[in-house]
Design goal:
Length: 180
């Protein structure tokens, strides 16, 4: 029996979600967008993803309303991809998947997420144990963990070594070139 190309006959909300975010690379693109990566070339160098695959994933995520394509330069025309409320809603799933991966594969944390208002590390469900509240994505501060490479090769990874709030644009040391 061959594996189908979609989940059309599945009556399941997980199957429906996988139609949009279940392809390889897609959740990593969304993760990077939540981290503040917005420009095509920055996704390209940070993920090491083939150009055609990235272009397809960005097109799909834009069509599904997970990312919003915005022009930031007219000449030459260049666009950036900003995560929408629909994309932000994926944060709990990405957080849970990240915690699962950390608990089962990475013994040393690669990234630390904390409540920007009080500095407390988030609990497994994105909650602040000190404030007893679920922290909004915009109020999550990301810091490098002890397992992260302290001297990465690409400018996006270097920029992500600095503490920053999620959703805030990544500022690299170099000017990014190229966009889709």
């Amino acid at each position: 029996m061959t594996l189908g190309k979609d989940y059309a006959k599945q009556e399941c909300s997980i199957a429906r979600a996988l139609e949009v975010v279940g392809e390889r690379w897609t959740l990593l693109v969304v993760r990077d967008a939540l981290y503040g990566v917005r420009r095509y070339n920055d996704f390209l160098v940070h993920l090491g993803i083939p150009r055609a695959v990235l272009a397809n994933r960005l097109q799909t995520l834009t069509a599904e309303g997970i990312l919003d394509k915005r022009r930031y330069q007219e000449s030459p025309p260049r666009d950036e991809y900003v995560v929408t409320d629909r994309g932000i809603a994926l944060w709990p799933a990405l957080r849970a998947l990240s915690m699962w991966g950390r608990d089962n594969y990475d013994l040393v944390p690669l990234r630390i997420f904390r409540h920007a208002d009080c500095g407390t590390e988030l609990g497994p469900y994105g909650e602040c144990p000190a404030c007893a509240t679920v922290v909004a994505v915009a109020d999550v501060e990301m810091l490098p963990g002890p397992g992260l490479d302290p001297d990465p090769a690409d400018p996006v990874s270097r920029a992500l070594l600095r503490p920053k709030r999620l959703l805030q644009p990544v500022v690299t040391d170099t000017v990014t070139a190229g966009s889709e």
